[in-house]
Amino acid sequence: MIHRSKARTPSRSRPALMAGALAPLTLAAAIAGGAQAKVRLFSFDPADDSTRHVAGQLTFEVDQRLMFVKVLKILSTQGEATAILKPVGEEVLGPGGLSRLGGPQGRERDLYEVEQTAEGADLARAFCPGSARVWLAFGRVSEGRDVRVLALGRGPGTGPARLCRTLAFSYHGEWRIPQGQPVRDRDLRVPKFPY
To answer: What's the burial of 164, exposed, middle or buried (CB within 10 Å: 0-12/13-18/19+)?
Structure first.
């Protein structure tokens, strides 16, 4: 179901082969190629009891580009919930932004608002009970890396956001997506998917 990355053994001839393969590639072509979106699905296991209780195993659907990764959705790997995320600036959190809530040395700098669709609202309530608006601040999401997510919320009033909880996840693997086919969220819950 989920593909785990395998460590590769370095090869002495590899740099020469790579240099030969990259020689004709211009900077403009590299930038253009890197600018194209590549949707990937990374699965994560809860790394502590608190995260296991609140979130369980999650899959993050990401748009990976050359210079950045944008989280598009959170999918409950074992449940029926999907939350769509929208990137926002940290000014929505009030004075001090992410530094106030996650600490000045915090690595969770990619901020998203959880859209209040039916399933998104359910996940938002689980992550940040009593909040009218919920944001998630991610550390770097990439293949093979564990990640922390700060769940931030604000009640019905207009005060500053508060830190609801810190979620810790261990990298589990990557879903293999069939080439050229869009992935429907419900397919992730079919035992035989991916092929």
So the answer is: buried
Q: What is the pLDDT of residue 81?
A: 80
Residue 142's pLDDT band (cuts 50, 70, 90): confident
The reported pTM is 0.72
Of residues 113 and 143, more confidence is placed in 113
For 63, 65, 139, 173, the CA distances from 35, given in Å and listed in that order, are 10, 6, 21, 24
Q: Which amino acid is at 102?
A: G
- Residue of 110, 120, 148, 154 lying closest to 134 (CA atoms): 154
Amino acid symbol at 40 = R
